[in-house]
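During the reporting period the student researcher (J.K.) took over the structure-prediction task from the postdoctoral fellow and processed the backlog of single-chain submissions. One of the processed entries is reproduced below for the supervisory committee.
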Amino acid sequence: MSESFRVALAQINPVVGDLSVNKEKIIDYVNQAYTRGVHIVCFPELALTGYPPEDLILKKKFIEDNMNIMREIVEKTPEIIVVCGFIDQEGDRVYNAAFVSYKGILFGTYRKVILPNYGVFDEKRYFRPGGEPIVFSYGTLTFGVNICEDIWFTEGPTKLQALSSASLIINLSASPYHAGKIKTRQEMLAERAREYNVFIAYTNMVGGQDELVFDGGSMVVDKTGNIIARASQFQEELLLVDIEIEDVKSFMLQKKYGIKRIDITRDISDRDRPSIKNHISEELPIEAEIYSALVLGLKDYVRKNGFKKVLVGLSGGIDSSLTATIACDAIGKENVKGVFMPSPYTSQGSREDVYELSRNLGIEVIEIPIENIFASYIESLKPIFKDLKEDVTEENIQARIRGNILMALSNKFGWLVLTTGNKSEMSVGYATLYGDMAGGFAVIKDVPKTEVYKLAYYRNSKGKVIPDRVLIKEPSAELKPGQKDSDLLPPYELLDSILKLYIEEDKELEDIVSYGIEKETVEKVLNMVDKSEYKRRQAPPGIKITPKALGKDRRMPITNRYRIRLV
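J.K. obtained the following structure tokens:
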């Protein structure tokens, strides 16, 4: 015999620190699930506080407020099991935890056992690891609850819960996005489900939080490893699924493994359950996935930080064109302002491309020439520079004039300045501090130059906005006559391949050369990366879309003389 249970995965977008708003959202989703005949509704990891709360966790009042609001949610729980992430505390010990409530009663708390401490994760700074995992019984169903990292390890809590009669494992996650990660998750969940003969309900957070984007993609996997329901990526959703649970497993193993068991109720009242069909959302192509992550990351950064409008310096190049396009898609064209600041070296083609882009997007362009300002700088510095030749100094002055203008507009009107530098440039320091790096948010900071072009072509396939010439002309900063990026950098295809090996895969110099890349080119690029850490440390935050972004993922010392060279 078997029994059907309806489970809901509440894939929500909380705001870090906004406990009251998060509480109301959680209660709303609980009530939605209840009216649709759901037995168990699951929320993401730390859904009550938002993730990651970082040093808010060090504030005693924050922990207390979170605990009080948890109790309020529990008291308002109707005849439905609620599993939700929050911060638990016992004495001076703080835990990443999940509460399990039913009909106004708190039945148990699970504390995360495996705390990640790599990449963007820093959980050992704040939390203590939990102890023994637990299982819960509800009617004929026995289920286990664990949190994010706990399910990634074969010998983790999932194994003990499965061996203690759990037929369903509920995993609450706040898993940050990078390109293609959903496939990695699916493969891991399928492996765990088959290995332990359990259903897995994986509830992931969605939304942007500073550099991070949580892509959702919550899913339910059956005992054979097949996905039977999957939520969309990059949007809030209440995913419902009916699970057929076979006869309860033997409880003999429970005594052997000593897992605590909490009985919620044996009697489940019959409520109306509107008919549903298990839904599996389509997987996004990789460029669509990355583009959606950038749009959501920018939208939430603007919204959650209280901005209304953004400002983009438009040069007629691919990076600023893509940044402006993402901004329009994220917050609406009426909230995006473009600024065109031509210098003596700005080409007519760039001017035409700026205005064609603005017409296609439907945004206003403010034109502020910098020729006279630049001339004034040069005149003022002439007594000091005397007969010295022009060099990068004069180029950087132009970039910094533009940065000052953008920040003046930001100060006067309250617009958020979006910088337009990509990962390739930021990696090798091909950017000007207090110039093109000046701003509040760096949308494509983790997007390699070659990927910038792919995203531009993808976006144009959905409706052409970026001018054709922008897609094919040779990149140039246009800060001196005839300037091209290739004057200082290898071709971007080669540069990006070196950067991927060095930054994302941590390959040594010798390893990179073994791929058939010229030794001198590799040494030059690695030297540029190593010497530019001071610039990156002063860059605005930007959206993570690769496995290893520049920032929290890669924490190199600024003062650092360690260099590897080939003999």
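The committee noted the following: The radius of gyration is 27 Å.
J.K. will present the remaining backlog at the next meeting.
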